[in-house]
Amino acid sequence: MALGITVQGEKVLLGFVETGTENETACAEFLQGLVDRGLRFQEGLLIVMDGGKGLRAGARRIFGADTPVQRCQWHKRENVVAYMPKAQQAMWRVSSSRRMLS
After folding, report:
1. Residues 12 and 6: beta-carbon distance below 8 Å
2. First and final CA of the chain: distance in angstroms?
3. Can you list the alpha helix ranges (DSSP code H) found in 4-85?
4. What does the domain layout of the chain look like in residue ranges?
5. Which is it for strands 69-71 and 47-49: parallel, antiparallel or unpaired?
6. What is the pLDDT of residues 83-98, one digit of tens each?
7. 5-50 pLDDT, tens per residue?
8. Which of 29, 36, 59, 102 is the most exposed place for a label (fewest CB within 10 A)?
């Protein structure tokens, strides 16, 4: 799923795809479809995504290597917390959520 955010701060669904894989080819085809339907990115674009390597590679292929990519902090936190002992996971989720909101 791709969401855009307008200059007024409104979220806009740009598109979605159901696929059995998140490899570079599938992701690049999805992103190219957004461009073909009118997504403008020449004036600037910030991509915020989970840690999917295929999505990052597809974005690089379609939008160029200089397009900034930000790893979603929620996804990053969840990946890190999953390696912690179960007894500590809830504490770290609450603690890091507070830091993300401030």
Report:
1. yes
2. 27
3. 24-36, 53-63, 73-81
4. 1-71, 72-102
5. parallel
6. 889 888 888 777 655 6
7. 888 999 999 999 998 888 999 999 999 999 999 999 888 899 988 8
8. 102
